[in-house]
Design a protein that fits this description.
The chain has 19 helices and 44 strands. By secondary structure, the protein is an alpha+beta fold.
């Protein structure tokens, strides 16, 4: 790690409390461990078993699950630091990281604040006020628009939260009649995420480039600009892929880079900035750029700067907070780094967040974790917030991990990253991994076409990661592995879901806590299944198992013969463009060797309750075994509005028996710090409303039922005709 600071006589940081959770807490702890600094975690009820809590030297519980009761309670966090003996607080990003009052309270408590001064946070914390400061410093800015004076000609416009960032409280308006409701929704979201409902409007540039410059300032008047990043690939105005250096700046050359650095240093110098910060700009294809905001904290995407500069930015934060000075010039950058945010979400379903248990998560190719990779050298870095056995809750952001590919150039970094994601082993909620892999290999991306409209303009990256033949082969392997397990006496839970140990004969922590598994093991202990083997006097009947992948059900018909396992002709052809030439060579409960078109390969299969995790050719996919017997109580009535995710009901837009129109918002859910609107699927009447404001609902819960409106002449209508008032 490079270190370009010199020591001042200020007190040394001895113990750091991280006022945050997940991945960023683990990242700060990693650098503190290297320096022999004690670490303290704070955690909510939902995070009691999280990896960051176990990694800290000590931890303090904050009762509750909602951020407003826990991670946004500055008084509780300062009290926790004092009780745990910490002499410094690192805010991470999000939550209280850009709260000037909290920073001041930390200083007032006699603790070291690892961040900029409260005055700097306050000045840049309001995007409205910060633009005025930047205008005075000669930095180009986008002008604020008065909502009451916006005309059709100025559309589209962007509604933004004045406080905070990360895409919260940010909406695009394309029609004037949507402006008022959009501003109200953005204000609610901003208030929930940052405690400040203030929003403003500005011109929206749909195909811009999001360019930002990493800056550092010290208490001795020195300011560094440490490389730029491009973060243009976004969804819901939240970054998905970030890289350094910027492809746009690379195309325009050193002249544009020099202007960016000059503007960023001017922005930091204008407010006497201290510590890590990011000056963000919106640029167009011509190379012109406008100031967006300054993030007075460490950014989520800071690893790409670390992996091209060789600097440990958290270590630099600790140095500057200790009073050390930056010496010499900022280091130059080498090679290229690309970071992706691995989210629990469904990109095809409008990026809908997902939640649930994570039974397996590993990245076999990762050779660096929470550490600075060697710039210019092909490496894969993993900064994860979730470990196997944890739960992705609905209370926080659905980011699972950040994965960073490093290389001598952009194409090498992209290849390292795509290959690493392809080899990921995952058993949990749906993720955006397939989208990330296909984007990293898509020609336009590789050529540097990285505007903020990328995902709208490249629908091909939303295609399924596996073709139907690959999925069918995986389902066949899962069925045969399950059948082999049955033949060796494996236990079964409800609905004949198989339960069997791993190759070591034990159950891992995640599987052992599964209710179906526990019941299956109890049944097996009471009523052992015989080991029937493969011998038969007569030809066995065909057996059937069905597996679901991406909403498509694959029916696998198989039987055991004297010569081994046989797959039915229908299984090898139905629903496919042409039949698969496939046979089973060997099989057991954990692996199946298949021969496809004369080529043999091994497929590994593991089970976790109703899921089969199939790994082939370094690629992993998870199949859900369909139940053999359908529970009638689980079938939703026609017209039901189902919860697309667990969350809290924050608004109801219609009353019982009220006539509603197709597309009309009926129920608003808040989950993972965002609002989600559930609309009427068709014209009708709100026949049932099963929730109230404040209710917590589970995934798939029936919230309401829209019934078809009665028509003149139908029985219901006739029964009221001629009634006497």
């Amino acid at each position: 790690m490079m270190n370009n600071t010199e020591t001042s006589p200020d007190a040394r940081i001895k113990s750091v409390l991280v006022a945050n959770r997940g991945e960023i807490a683990r990242r700060v702890f990693a650098t503190c461990r290297e320096r022999g600094i004690d670490t303290v975690a704070v955690y909510s009820d939902a995070d009691a078993n999280a990896a960051f809590v176990h990694e800290a030297d000590s931890a303090v519980h904050l009762p509750g699950v909602h951020p407003g009761d826990t991670y946004l309670r500055g008084d509780l966090i300062i009290d926790a630091a004092l009780r745990a003996g910490a002499n410094a607080i690192h805010p991470g990003y999000g939550f209280l990281s850009e709260n000037a009052d909290f920073a001041q309270a930390v200083n007032d408590a006699g603790l070291i604040w690892i961040g900029p001064s409260p005055d700097s946070i306050a000045q840049m914390g309001s995007k409205v006020e910060s633009k005025a400061l930047m205008r005075a410093a000669g930095v180009p800015v986008l002008e604020q628009l008065d909502p009451a004076e916006i005309t059709e000609a100025e559309l589209p416009v962007l509604v933004k939260a004045s406080a905070g960032g990360g895409g919260r409280g940010m909406r695009v308006v394309h029609a004037l009649d949507q402006l008022e409701d959009t501003i109200a929704a953005a204000a609610r979201e901003a208030a929930s995420a940052f405690g400040d409902p203030t929003v403003f409007c500005e011109r929206y540039i749909p195909t811009g480039h999001h360019i930002e410059v990493q800056v550092f300032g010290d208490s001795h008047g020195n300011v560094w600009a440490i490389g730029e990043r491009e973060c243009s690939l976004q969804r819901r105005h939240q970054k998905v892929i970030e890289e350094a250096p910027s492809p746009l700046v690379e195309r325009h050359g050193e002249a544009m880079r020099a202007r960016l650095y000059e503007a960023a240093r001017a922005a930091a110098a204008q407010i006497g900035y201290l510590g890590a910060g990011t000056v963000e700009f919106l640029a167009d294809d011509s190379g012109e750029f406008f100031f967006l905001e300054m993030n007075t904290r460490l950014q989520v995407e800071h690893p790409v700067t670390e992996c091209t500069s060789g600097l440990d930015l958290v270590a630099l934060q600790l140095d500057i907070a200790s009073g050390k000075a930056l010496t010499g010039a900022a280091p130059s950058t080498v090679g290229h780094a690309i970071e992706v945010r691995l989210y629990a979400e469904d990109p095809v379903a409008d990026w809908q967040p997902q939640s649930g248990p994570v039974r397996e998560f590993s990245m076999p190719s990762a050779n660096v974790e929470f550490a600075v990779a060697q710039p210019g050298t092909a490496q894969l870095r993993l900064d994860s917030g979730i470990s196997a056995g944890e739960q992705i809750s609905t209370f926080y952001d659905p980011m699972i991990a950040k994965v960073i590919g490093v290389g001598a150039n952009r194409s090498e970094a992209a290849a390292v990253l795509a290959d690493g994601l392809d080899e990921m082993r995952w058993d949990g909620p749906r993720t955006n991994a397939a989208l990330l892999v296909q984007t990293l290999r898509e020609p336009a991306f590789l050529e540097g076409d990285t505007t903020t409209a990328y995902f709208d303009e490249h629908p091909e990256v939303f295609a399924p990661a596996f073709n139907q033949i690959e999925v069918r082969v995986a389902a066949i392997a899962a069925a045969i592995a399950s059948a082999s397990a049955v033949a060796t006496g494996a236990a079964a839970g409800p609905n004949d879901v198989l339960v069997h140990a791993n190759k070591m004969g034990t159950l891992d922590r995640a599987v052992a806590h599964d209710a179906d598994t526990a019941l299956g093991l109890a049944n097996a202990a009471a009523h052992p299944r015989p080991k029937i083997g493969g011998w038969r006097l007569f030809q066995a009947d065909w057996r059937l198992r069905s597996f679901i992948h991406d909403g498509i059900e694959h029916h696998i018909e198989y039987r055991s013969t004297r010569d081994g396992w046989e797959i039915s002709a229908g299984t090898l052809s139905i629903g496919l463009d042409s039949p698969i030439d496939l046979s089973i060579v060997t099989a057991d409960a954990y692996s199946v060797r298949v021969r496809v078109a004369g080529v043999e390969r091994n497929i590994a299969v593991t089970r976790a309750a109703q899921r089969a995790i199939v790994t082939t050719r370094k690629r992993t996919l998870t199949l859900l075994e369909a139940p053999r017997y359908l529970d009638p109580s689980t079938v939703a009535a026609p017209g039901s509005l189902l919860a697309p995710m667990p969350g809290a009901v924050i608004r109801v837009g219609a009353k019982l028996s009220e006539t509603v129109a197709a597309g009309q918002p009926i129920i608003w859910l808040e989950a993972m710090k965002m609002e989600h609107v559930i609309q009427a699927p068709a014209d009708g009447v709100l026949a049932e409303l099963r929730v109230n404001l404040g209710d917590q609902v589970e995934f798939g819960a029936a919230l309401a039922v829209i019934a078809e409106a009665a028509k003149p002449g139908d029985p219901a209508q006739k029964s009221t005709e001629g009634a006497v008032a």
